[in-house]
Design a protein that fits this description.
Length: 282
């Protein structure tokens, strides 16, 4: 009889609620009674904090806060500091992906501070420019006219259009209607292939000027093409882009120095990694 009564009580939701509530109360009681050192218990809102709080307000509202506004913000700052300290004391920052990412971002920034350095001398800049000349080379530029013959043009139809353009018949009277541009001016390889499909630029003989060539296939069918002008690849002289090259060198130098700083930090640790090959085969 007594055993059944005990089992019945243990199944009561109210008893469960009281038990869990007691655990929560005990936890907070232990936290409130947690001994703290005198220095840890000191929370000073110094002049630097006050200036920062006031300036943040001014940056938003374009004026200094009133006494009441300042008091409210200081109270909010104190509450935030208390909660942060207590969270750290409870270890709530441990294994938190968001906090880890934020800390990494801060260290990533710190390792890159003061890594740009002074501009390079002429010899260093010239060596960098020559080693990276591809970055300062202009793409070739082509201008051409095209006649679209559709997707199912026969050899006879192609020959007929070729004869017509050679005899001076206006190109707008030839071919089939299309939304493709009849003339593409001052275009790079990327622009040509974006308009007609990958490989169309390479299919054009850009050295064959003012002569109709084809048939040339595109993603849209058959074309005849006449190249009006072609400007080959050109490397921009260093003197014309000296400022840009200097900035590129400084950026690369900063990235190299930053990577070295991170490597120096890693060198402080004895990194031991477990064998993960087995888990990759599961």
């Amino acid at each position: 009889m007594i055993k059944n009564t005990i089992l019945k009580l243990l199944r009561e939701p109210l008893l469960h609620f009281i038990f869990v509530g007691g655990l929560v109360f005990a936890t907070f009681a232990a936290l409130n009674e947690r001994p703290v050192k005198q220095q840890e218990n000191l929370l000073v809102v110094d002049n630097a904090d006050l200036v920062r709080i006031a300036e943040q307000f001014r940056a938003t509202w374009m004026r200094l806060p009133t006494q009441d506004e300042m008091a409210g913000m200081v109270d909010g700052f104190v509450q935030e500091e208390v909660l942060v300290r207590e969270a750290l004391a409870l270890g709530l920052d441990q294994d938190d992906a968001v906090i880890r990412q934020r800390l990494r971002q801060k260290m990533d920034f710190i390792t890159g501070v003061n890594t740009v350095g002074a501009p390079p001398d002429e010899a260093v800049l010239k060596a960098y420019y020559e080693a990276n000349s591809a970055d300062y080379t202009l793409d070739p530029i082509v201008t051409f006219e095209q006649i679209h013959l559709g997707t199912n043009a026969t050899d006879a139809q192609i020959s007929a259009v070729q004869d017509a353009v050679r005899n001076g018949q206006p190109t707008e009277e030839l071919g089939v209607p299309t939304l493709l541009p009849s003339t593409l001016r001052g275009s790079t390889r990327a622009n040509v292939d974006r308009s007609f499909g990958i490989g169309f630029y390479d299919a054009i003989d850009v050295t064959l000027l003012e002569l109709w060539q084809g048939p040339i296939m595109s993603s849209f069918g058959v074309h005849l093409v006449r190249v009006e002008s072609f400007e080959p690849t050109e490397t921009v002289p260093l003197e014309s882009i000296k400022e840009r090259v200097t900035q590129d060198w400084q950026t690369q130098n900063a990235e190299t120095e930053k990577a070295r700083n991170i490597q120096n930090l890693r060198a402080r640790y004895d990194v031991q990694v477990g064998d993960y090959s087995a888990m990759l085969t599961q």
